[in-house]
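Bench log, entry 3. Co-assembly request; chain sequences pasted below exactly as received.
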Amino acid sequence: MDVLKPQIGDWWHALLQGAGLSSGWIVFLDALVITLILLGLGLTSVLFAVWLERKLAARVQDRLGPNRVGPYGLVQTVADALKLLTKEDITPDNAERLSYNLAPGLAVFAVLMLLLVIPFGPGLIGADINVGVLYLVAMGSVGIMAILMAGWSSNNKYALLGGFRAVAQLLSYEIPMILAMSVPVLFAGTMSMEKLVEQQAHGRWFGVVMPAAFFLYFLAALAENERTPFDLLEADSEIVAGYHIEYSGMKFAWFFLAFFLNTLILSAIATTLFLGGWRGPFVEQVPALGIFYFLAKSFVLVFAFMWIRATFPRLRIDQMMAFAWKVMVPTGLVLVLVAAVFVKLPVAPLVRDVLLFLVNVFILLVVAGLVGRHLRLQIKRLSEGAAVVS
Amino acid sequence: MAQAQSAVATESLPYNDVIPGAVVGRDGEALIVNREKLLELARYLRDHEGYDYLSSVTGVDNLTHPKRQGVERFEVVYHLYSTKRGGGPLVLKARAPEDDPEIPSVVSIWPGADFQEREIWDLFGVRFPGHPNLRRILLWEGFNGHPMRKDWKEAYYEEEHKPYSSRWPYGHYPREEYKYPWQEERAVYKDNLVFPKGFDPDRWQAPEVEYRLGQDIYRELEKLKTDRIIVNIGPQHPSTHGVFRMVVALEGETILGLEPEVGYLHRNHEKIGERNTYLMNIPYTDRLDYINSMSNNLGYVLAVEKLMGKVEVPERAKYLRIIMAELTRVLNHMFAIGFLLNDLGAFFTPALYALEERELILDLFEAASGSRMMCNYMRPGGVAYDVSEEWVAQAKKLVFERLPRAVDELDYYLTENEILLARTKGVGYLSPEDAIAYSTSGPVLRGSGVPYDIRKVEPYCIYDRFDFDIVTEDGGDVYARYMVRIREARESLKILRQALKDLPGGPVIGKKKYTFRIPPGEAYQRIEAPKGELGFYLVSDGTANPYRYHVRSPSFINLTALGPMCVGHKVADSVGILGSIDIVLGEVDR
Amino acid sequence: MILKVVFLLVSLFTVGSALMVVTHKNLFSSALFLVASFFGVAALYVLLEAEFLAVAQVLIYVGAIATLIIFAIMLTRGMMSGRTSPRNDQAAWAGLASVVLGLVLLYVVVFRVQWPVVEKPVPPDTIEQLGRALVGRYVVPFEVASVLLLAALVGAVLIAREKEV
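Structure output for the full assembly:
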């Protein structure tokens, strides 16, 4: 398989063949090793991300954050995870057992499956399937199913409301997200994650060439990840915890895991699609740097996610839906159109990139201006018309 | 007394020329009203005399009052004010005999009487015909009797006074639930519990909640044929500021009706108050609005002083009282803003910024009174302890340098934030007329553009010496209430700066007294507490403890307006609106 | 050999889930089995090396259609209305009809269709070929389908608006 190619992979295969294993076994062991590596990488990153989130929020809020377990409280998450595992597992009396117990697993499954197509470094990809981007989107929608199952089967009204919100929000934001993702895909002419990274050589990152698409993706990812200001699925001040209100102990930990994995993976996707993936200086000479670059870029995005979470209040459901359908979807459509036109423009690549960049900035400014104007008007109307309405 | 009025005397009483026979006598400053004519008189007072603000409705049981023997047993006292003219109250009293405890409801005239009349029904057993929703409010339906009646005995405790010997005779606790496990659910106290007649705990169901509706939006939504769900938000809900329940009828995410259910923290503060001496009550008032114990102290102490008549308060104590009260206001407003943002979904950041300043103010309180939150600082005739020079220096540093910056910081970070604007503008609208009608007070009232601040309209303490403005905002929405709080915090700092600059020397209290000779009489003292109008109504019969002790708590009465404010908005907004009212359950449930 | 076993397992899973869809007493669970059955079909596509179709199957059927079905169930049924019988008076006739229909289909599929058997490997750029076919040979059906969807969209908006007025 493609992982660890070329040197280590060859060495590994030679080793297996030397041990006298048949090709079937080699394929199987390959898959096993890849799975283990991906799992290890994903779960360790989650541990780190949870710590980062807590520490970051604490710093934003003028406090210290976890600082007792391990240096800088780094092991705090491990302690918390262990604690969660020992907690009592509660199933509500009237819960629909099957889906109730299946939902947390499905949630984690859907996210873990995404790890498969993410290129962590040069050649470090689980499986470079030629419909990589589409695969990401498809698996993302399986996560919705998990939330729905959890929300419905808990037999709890808060959970049900959380489920309603989940469908409305995640389905709505999936569309601008797909649109934003299809811009680099159109531009690169491939859906393979590996090839997308290859196309972004020499600092020609798609995020730089098409900042509007990147921004759109980032906003949609915020919503897909249920993060402030779009964290309505689990809005603690409104519907307590939403779909996972009834879950405790291990099962809750799974949802928690899925949530943070999702943050990481959405950042990783953004890095791959828009920020040149594992590309960076000297990466051709020292391939191991690729992993470092990739993780660094991803965590910059994760940092931004957390920063926003610690700073902003939350939107209301109707405002959120209006934003998705009235702002993000049209913008996404325009961006796809623009990208499609520019791909076929008969000019030198550099000129095309510059032009595309300018058009993107222009679109961004126009949309921001329109939204701002609309908001001001609406706020004015609301504060004037409040007396008439009520 | 009332029945003995002759026709001639009746004629000399006010308002009888307009509504003949309405006022039948006087009791001190109060006018005694014929209950048959109460509604007529009330409507006249509201429409023609400008008494549009019903501050407080409360009941008194005259059963054992030595001066009121021979008077009809139940008395309902109305304190009316005018928001246009300002000034003192018009006190009405309507009386009802024991065998017919009914007084017409004034909810149709002042909707703000809603919760208060329910409370009187709950605690005194006086019925209010015409009340739209006369259910118990603080106690549950299975509660036997009406505890504020003077002849009420605690269940299975037959003696007149606490402290008890034991609730369970000889200390035996009938733990028969081991034998019958289901008994635990039915009645833990087994035979030790009495239910009202016709009440069966096994078959009891929570009463159908009646929503105050009528808005067009409701009828609009009625047409949609989707599942309507009733959601109980609370009592254990992290963002409701305590154990508080909102029964919400939802159409999707839109609120069709909302009914607050309170009483989870009820401890019958007023009954405890009747048992305590006047001095013993001061620490109990700390527990009302436990965020602002200083202003609770102040309100209660002022009420006692009013009842005592002439009380000399040393000059330094007067200033210290103002300083404490205003520090409390700054603290409360920053706290409220921080947690409003929490309710709107911010991840604790504004709340923690506010808490940081609060801790510094609490440090001052601790240095002055010995306690951070339960200060127990004021005394009739002054304050309990003096403050040191260092304290004043510290307070000056805080008030002159740090707090203004902190308020500006909150303002800078939050006020122009688009999400905050989008979430708060036009949400939870309350028109000025409604705000007055629902007897709201404090930032809620002023957020609706009614310039009504008791510190100005009916000055108490020495507020008339300071230069400050009444803050109003015209929006009437959550944002306006938020802005009122920000600006009021600034005004408070203005007062604080003046007060700290002029703080005179000298004693802080005359002779420390532990018993008070309070002459018989009654007093209603209200102050502008941070959350609104905090009133204490005291009736003395000349003994060491108050005969009747009533707290008009701003949180409780502001909640009356919650339902109407929420209808038509989304679930998420209801939490924000609640946050903008800024309630504290210790005060709501009392 | 292994492929055949896998194929059998996946087929059994798919058909079993499909059966559960029509026989399960709880509507919500039926919908979930429908999802499982969609997944099975996607797995079959993978076995046929049609990755694009498999992913599209998951995306459209699981991600969109099944989610909408479940959402509709959640909105219209009482929250946990529990068991509803999947049978009614016409169950027998409907069963008969579907069995006959199924047999006819099976007959046609097995005996009447000429299945082209090609030995050459699946080309790596299936997506590109699919794309070309979609805007080349099959452009008319493609456009007709999109017009139909547009009409449905407009209709949905219209229906939604009517309630508002």
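Chain A has one domain: 89-389. Confidence is low (pLDDT under 50) at residues 386-390 of chain A.
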